[in-house]
Amino acid sequence: MDKYPCLDNPLSMTTLLLMNKIIAHIVVAALATIALTGCTTVNHNFGSQPADQVWTAMVAVAHSPVYKDWQVSRNDVWVDEDAKRIEIYRRLRRVLSQPASKTRREKREWRFQIMLESTNPPKAVFTSRGLGVPGHAQREGDRYFADVLDLLSGVADEPIEPAANAPDK
Fold this sequence. Notes:
The protein is α+β, with helices and mostly antiparallel strands. It has 3 helices and 5 strands, in the order αβαββββα.
């Protein structure tokens, strides 16, 4: 009696090779999924800005997100003043119409954590905690910090002047 009788059967050997190939594909797919999903972190240093002003701007931007091409359908914000931590759960949606393409309805869901570290200069860490493409989360972190900087510089409060060559309405 052989130690491995199934290896004497050609059908069993084919099955074994097929199973190894399937397992290899599953492992590759799992590794690709891990590489394309998970947490993404964006850091930002605020230079000479006072930490209390940075914190106030961070909280304001979390509560009032501004998107050019998305509509906010849900924006839940939890603020921990003592730990200087903001947790955000946000849902976005849009209808995307492009030339020579069908109109698409898109949805995006975000789970963020933003922490203001007690360093000099103030440093904030934006972490996307949901599944998604890391590049999308990177852009969202950059967008968030751009809005914070706009608020700190007063750009958000300035009236928008019409362009000199704009027609009168």
